[in-house]
Specification:
The chain is α+β, with helices and mostly antiparallel strands and 226 residues long. The chain has one domain (2-221). 23% of the residues lie in helices and 21% in strands. It has two helices and ten strands; from the N terminus they run αβαβββββββββ. It has helices at 2-44, 91-99; strands at residues 67-68, 110-120, 127-130, 143-145, 148-149, 171-172, 180-181, 184-185, 189-198, 212-221. Strands 1, 2, 3, 4, 9 and 10 form a six-stranded antiparallel sheet that branches.
Length: 226
């Protein structure tokens, strides 16, 4: 009895800690898979799809090679429409990410995306959707510009991005959602960020925190749909 009284608390503490850790790992995998599904969905449903998942920047520009905010010309493939848009919190992309959630309420998962690409000041300032360096003699000085969420590059330090209601509104894009311009590859990429604020069982016991924010980040190149 004395031995049992001494050993049982330690054994139960170890057992319960392993169970909570396992649940956390499982939920982290769920969040990462959700980010992967969101990135894949946005990548495939690009500007040439019937209902594209779009960035905040439109694929427009007077030269047909790169976009420029406020330009009067436009790149308008026949199928392009701002269908699954950030203004509506990307219902199709987010719905796809949440559709595979198991083990917690899918509506508790927050999802956002941002689009990155090359920018250049040649042939004119402020152009996005530029091709990669050394691929087009008419465009020079391209630089890769990462998009941001809540002021952070999600591929570098996602832990600095808060998982709150302002997530979608904090995205800043540096490219549109197209994969090419008149046959010229532009190298745009979409980064999906998913997060979930988890309250572990036995929170406050065995040094288990009251809340744990789980995050997942996946980046995919933009693909063309016929």
């Amino acid at each position: 009895m004395v031995e049992l009284a001494l050993i049982l608390p330690l054994f139960l503490s170890l057992l319960l800690g392993i169970i909570v850790l396992g649940i956390g790992v499982f939920y982290q995998q769920q969040v990462t898979n959700a980010a992967r599904e969101a990135a894949r969905y946005a990548s495939v449903n690009s500007g040439t799809s019937i209902c594209p998942t779009v960035s905040r920047l439109d694929p427009k520009g007077t030269d047909g090679l790169s976009g420029r905010a406020g330009a009067t010309g436009a790149y308008q493939p026949l199928s392009y429409t701002r269908c699954d848009a950030p203004d509506a919190s990307w219902p199709s992309m987010v719905g796809r990410a949440r559709s595979l959630i198991f083990g917690f309420n899918p509506n508790s998962l927050r999802v956002a995306a941002c689009w990155s690409g090359y920018v250049t000041n040649t042939p004119a300032p402020g152009y996005y959707d530029a091709p990669p360096p050394d691929t087009d003699p008419n465009v020079a000085g391209q630089q890769w510009a990462p998009c941001t969420i809540a002021g952070q590059d999600p591929t570098l330090d996602p832990a600095q991005i808060a998982c709150d209601s302002g997530l979608v509104g904090s995205t800043v894009d540096t490219s549109s959602d197209i994969s090419e311009r008149q046959g010229l590859t532009v190298g745009n990429r979409v980064t999906a960020f998913a997060c979930y604020v988890w309250t572990p069982p036995l929170a406050g016991f065995l040094l288990i925190p009251q809340q744990v924010t789980l995050r997942g980040v996946i980046t995919e190149p933009i693909q063309r749909q016929q």
